[in-house]
Input
Amino acid sequence: MKWIVALMLVVGLRSVALADDPAITANFTAQQHLPSNTPIELRLNRPLESTEGRLALFVDKTDVTALFTALPGRLVYQGERYPLPAGEHEVIVYLVSPEGSWKEIGRFPDTSRLLEVDHRSRCRSHGERTARRDPST
Output
């Protein structure tokens, strides 16, 4: 009888845990300016169950899901292999249900400020100008 109660408790707790959407965290913040070759890492707070669907990842309006490598508990975008264009960007994560409905579960850095990617080897702050050499000289 005790094992039935324990099993019911475990199944009940698992159902409650799955009722929450997976939470995603990123390896960068809105205050950072990243070189274009910096890997982007997104961590999940728990494994995604197959019955929940799949994740879709976008940089701005471009689906980059296939460019992320799935590792246990995280997804990694290899910046050295696929550098992002310079400028400000958002990374958006959707949970796509098996029925095909999409739900946004993460937006990075957030809607207040966009991720700024710089093609130079170091990061720059907003307003800093890059000295450009005249190609005709």
Remarks:
- Confidence is low (pLDDT under 50) at residues 1-18, 121-137.
